[in-house]
Amino acid sequence: MNRITNLLSIQYPLIQAGMVWCSGWELASEVSKSGGLGVIGSGSMYPEILDEHLTKCKASGAQQFAVNIPLLYPQIDEHIKTIIKHRVPVVISSAGSPKKWTKQLQNEGIKVLHVVSSALFALKSQDAGVDGIIAEGFEAGGHNGRDETTTLCLIPAVKEQIEIPLIAAGGISSGKSMLAAMVLGAEGVQIGSRFVASQESSAHASFKQAVIEAKEGDTELSLKSVTPVRLLKNEFYEEVKKATESGASGDELKALLGKGRAKKGMFEGDLDQGELEIGQIASLLHEVIPAKDIVAEIINEYNNIGGKKLGGYFDF
Amino acid sequence: MNRITNLLSIQYPLIQAGMVWCSGWELASEVSKSGGLGVIGSGSMYPEILDEHLTKCKASGAQQFAVNIPLLYPQIDEHIKTIIKHRVPVVISSAGSPKKWTKQLQNEGIKVLHVVSSALFALKSQDAGVDGIIAEGFEAGGHNGRDETTTLCLIPAVKEQIEIPLIAAGGISSGKSMLAAMVLGAEGVQIGSRFVASQESSAHASFKQAVIEAKEGDTELSLKSVTPVRLLKNEFYEEVKKATESGASGDELKALLGKGRAKKGMFEGDLDQGELEIGQIASLLHEVIPAKDIVAEIINEYNNIGGKKLGGYFDF
């Protein structure tokens, strides 16, 4: 037991990241039933789709699970209603200010975690009353901060600023990296890329294959002048790079990005023209296995290296 | 005792990074006498200056110490002669291929470590016969790799590829980050920025002050089209950024960089027009203290969190 397992009523302080197009109810349910916190990524779902995923997640017997909401989601009021209707135990908010929704969700008995990429926003989020902070480093896949602070530098910096429980994200995929992040001051971890390459992930099979074939240097933080996002390098990434080097404006890059590229890449498997969001750690992933085996492998490795011997919050 | 302390005949597997303009004999000697490996950074020294620093380092009573040589140093033959003349116990090579000099140095009884920023070059360096690898992540100060792999992702990737001892660098400044890096598979650490802010560092007092006042986001990997280097943001950095955004060529950037900017910034204290090399971890540094206190603080924190309880190479 530590502050994270206690707060979220889970067995292991291991959260599966809510990821657009990759984490529907099948993945969330499987992680939750394996002792971690499974998370439905609602950023890529219409309100009625989220409703369907929550109905199925609950019907599957999952007890503790969460929904991730990017706070800039256009129909956020609908999502919030759906979440409250289904009595979702935990909400993970990201990409926006947690000031507006946190209290309302907490009044419904929902725990709120907020994702940040800097100590400054961690402190602001604590002031907004969230229950815990997820601090995500530069190596993480998908949307990321402008300071480019890596997990190794970010976690101690956030820990220095806040009192509430801290969860580390970015570059974590194993029991060793879980323990390393906890040594830095986090009481739990959020893991994304590794679960993209799980059997229950809703990512397209071609994208999963591309993830496990990725080599070092195959991802890069791209689209920095629009909104920084870590992508697997492909034709689309090269077009963005070329446009950026030729001095394209933010609007021109947005036009190049267009609509639906993330779906096209990650969900429909267009590896050339799709937007492929994945973390740097992809180069260490070598196989697609069931989510429950991923959780078990991580916890076994954590225990084998002797994590619990450090006592206190390490002995959850 | 572990493979690093054994290889280098030192008490703690803690190496002070050899840094241009910051690490002369005073710093190297103090770190060595405190139980770590002190390193003289020869990249900013004329051959006769290195000779003088080695004479003083030995006269100070330091037993184990090293010289860092960037392998692209123009008068490298002179440096190698000086190193052999002084019977320097350890050489740390960087920025180039270790094929040419490693055997010659080893034939003189000198241990050779080589600095890399990728698993690919770690493997090539092992094949070249070096005694150990220092793998340095994206968050490190100064010159860096093009893949932008962070220490958290780099160490497990290198560990997967090599058999020889591995030392982690980049983002490490404390006992906790030392232990975290070792959990990932390193058997020791190299620490740079923290020693820039030591009393014995030869950095200009104004630069030391700027380092301890740095906030998150205040460094960035710059000059990527020439040779990537992490800098503290200042007027010179802004000029480089502006030129890069206007599409300046590599040659134009080299002309802007000119000669002597690193000396001007770090050694002479010109905080506006100098090149100020420092790691991301600078935002976590708050004071300038003696190097021996830095070593003691790091080792105490490592022990207090319980590093040795993990056994094996953790119990050095």
Give the helix/strand layout.
2 copies of one chain form a homodimer.
Chain A: H1 3-8, E1 14-16, H2 25-33, E2 38-41, H3 47-59, E3 65-70, H4 76-85, E4 90-94, H5 102-107, E5 111-116, H6 119-127, E6 132-136, E7 142-143, H7 151-161, E8 166-169, H8 175-183, E9 188-191, H9 193-196, H10 205-213, E10 219-222, E11 229-232, H11 235-245, H12 250-257, H13 261-267, H14 291-305
Parallel strand pairs in A: 1-9, 2-3, 3-4, 4-5, 5-6, 6-8, 8-9
Antiparallel strand pairs in A: 7-11, 10-11
Helix pairs in contact in A: 2-3, 3-4, 6-7, 8-14, 11-12
Summarize the entry for a quick read.
2 copies of one chain form a homodimer. Chain A is an alpha/beta fold. Chain A contains 14 helices and 11 strands.
Describe this structure in words.
2 copies of one chain form a homodimer. With 316 residues, chain A is α/β, with parallel strands linked by helices. Chain A folds into 2 domains: 3-202 and 284-314, Aldolase class I (TIM Barrel, Alpha-Beta Barrel), CATH 3.20.20; 205-282, no CATH class. Helices cover 40% and strands 15% of the residues of chain A. Chain A is built from 14 helices and 11 strands. Chain A has helices at residues 3-8, 25-33, 47-59, 76-85, 102-107, 119-127, 151-161, 175-183, 193-196, 205-213, 235-245, 250-257, 261-267, 291-305; strands at residues 14-16, 38-41, 65-70, 90-94, 111-116, 132-136, 142-143, 166-169, 188-191, 219-222, 229-232. Chain A has an 8-stranded parallel sheet. A 3-stranded antiparallel sheet of chain A has the order 7-11-10, covered by helices on one side. Chains A and B meet through helix 7 and helix 8 of A and helix 7 and helix 8 of B.
